[in-house]
Amino acid sequence: MQRLENCTAVVTGASSGIGNSIAARFGREGANVVVADVRREPKLDDKRSVFDKLEECGADSLFVETDVTDETAVEAAVDAAVDEFGGLDILVNNAGIYYQYEAHETPTEDYDAITDVNLRGTFLCSKAAIPELKNSDNAKIINLSSIFGLVGGGSSAAYCASKGGVTNLTRQMALDYAEDEINVNALAPGIIKTAQNVEWRENDPEILADWEEKTPWPRFGDPEDVADAAVFLASDESDFITGDILSVDGGWTAQ
Ligand code: NAD
């Protein structure tokens, strides 16, 4: 039996990387999938389109061009999901951006951009989705935090601030919607091989060596590692888990 049969999911930022893998896994588990992204094609040219993957497994899907910082666009994405599939069960707040600067070197517009997409975007999408999730028997919100939402690191002050916000927004929404039986949890990935870090992985041996040393497991993560955890949090197997931040980090935060 498929674990997400009869469910409809909106996955933000699902054209690339982790979101692409989550959307494809959800499709394979029987969900209808709405891809809400600013772009349709994956950021890395060698990666497969999420729509090809969804078609391959016979899942119904819909692309809604969505900037998660735009409240009207986010509301339209939720409306499109409900119009197309008759309801909404799962929201994955995955869209995110990453810049690497220490605080005193961070251009203020980059600080604003990163908190806008990563934190305010998570808030706006949740706000738009919750009234629909209240009608679902399998209502789940999964936020993408990070190891840098749990500990400092990466010389990325703005990113750490945004993901720390996502971590605690997750806990508060879990409390607010427990009565409504909406599970709200977060995933905190470690270093996962995507476009977000390809530049450093391929061109900066110093950072690469540092990250390898900080990852006890003898490899970095793949998007599929995060997708496996997302399926668990999206399914009824996690019905009594809420307000949790599940690390998918090869032991980074165990130290
Ligand atoms: P990615 O860059 O590969 O993909 C991000 C996707 O989000 C892209 O398709 C992009 O178009 C989309 N996006 C960006 N801004 C958007 C916006 N304003 N509105 C809608 N879509 C937008 O990144 P990834 O590595 O797959 O990261 C996914 C999530 O996981 C992010 O929240 C990221 O911070 C988090 N994360 C990633 C890692 C990692 O090592 N890759 C680690 C921890 C957490």
UniProtKB/TrEMBL annotation:
Keywords, sorted A to Z: Oxidoreductase
PROSITE patterns: ADH_SHORT (PS00061)
GO molecular function terms noted in the UniProt entry: glucose 1-dehydrogenase [NAD(P)+] activity
EC number: 1.1.1.47
Matching Gene3D superfamilies: NAD(P)-binding Rossmann-like Domain
UniProt record similarity statement: Belongs to the short-chain dehydrogenases/reductases (SDR) family.
Protein name in the entry: Glucose 1-dehydrogenase
Protein species of origin: Halorientalis pallida
